[in-house]
Amino acid sequence: xxxxxxxxxxxxxxxxxxxxxxxxxxxxxxxxxxxxxxxxxxxxxxxxxxxxxxxxxxxxxxxxxxxxxxxxxxxxxxxxxxxxxxxxxxxxxxxxxxxxxxxxxxxxxxxxxxxxxxxxxxxxxxxxxxxxxxxxxxxxxxxxxxxxxxxxxxxxxxxxxxxxxxxxxxxxxxxxxxxxxxxxxxxxxxxxxxxxxxxxxxxxxxxxxxxxxxxxxxxxxxxxxxxxxxxxxxxxxxxxxxxxxxxxxxxxxxxxxxxxxxxxxxxxxxxxx
Length: 273
Ligand SMILES: Nc1ncnc2c1ncn2[C@@H]1O[C@H](COP(=O)(O)OP(=O)(O)OP(=O)(O)O)[C@@H](O)[C@H]1O
Hints:
The protein is of the alpha/beta class. The chain is built from ten helices and eleven strands. The chain has helices at residues 58-65, 95-101, 117-127, 134-147, 151-154, 167-179, 197-210, 223-229, 252-257, 262-268; strands at residues 4-6, 20-29, 32-42, 47-51, 75-83, 86-87, 102-105, 185-189, 215-219, 232-237, 245-251. The protein has a seven-stranded mixed beta sheet, with helices on both faces. The longest helix has 14 residues, at 134-147. The structure holds adenosine-5'-triphosphate.
């Protein structure tokens, strides 16, 4: 089945991120097929929102995009994931380099709670083999906390533990930590679902500020959020025992205002899911 598409309007978007693309991506847990031939382009400079009812495979799709799916022993996949036309599952592709280029922010903020705010930001450097001296680290901490929209709130307490921050601040700290290894793509799995409305707004602003530099893919159950933060949407659905697939994708305004498929219209208008 081919997904309906609405043309994506890229006029005026000047971006330095990378384009991520899947070709006929299918996924299984054991014999259970959960995704069926998903082909989706997530362009640089564009926030792509993955929407759809619970269990349709959005998180699985996201986890395939930075090779986390393979951490589940029974998991397998078919198809391709291309980062600027290079298959991230291709022979010779280094796992640590792929995960550095494609970062992930999770539903529940997960800073290292006893580690200082500053050390949380630079925690990924060693893991990815990047080196920095003390002055470079200090500059990086300021830069990443600023880009994540947290600098002004924490600049006078960088040595306090990350766990002492509010939930919304912790999530922005996790975004800063992801940014420190200079990713090209940031994947976000329901990053605001554990946060209050004010913190949610702040994260949404951060997403808006980052999108010209980092390609962003976000899973969200909140249709207003998808409409606010994304320029492109993909609607996933798993119908009666079938694996999840993309019913329709394209420009967010048109997906919400003039969807081509009745099921998309029903979902974005809250009639199911
Ligand atoms: N580790 C796992 N082992 C076995 N099956 C899994 C595993 N993770 C997910 N699944 C199954 O894969 C399917 C897709 O799940 P997934 O979490 O990707 O959906 P989702 O759209 O992100 O759902 P939600 O919106 O509720 O988070 C579901 O049928 C789920 O039960």
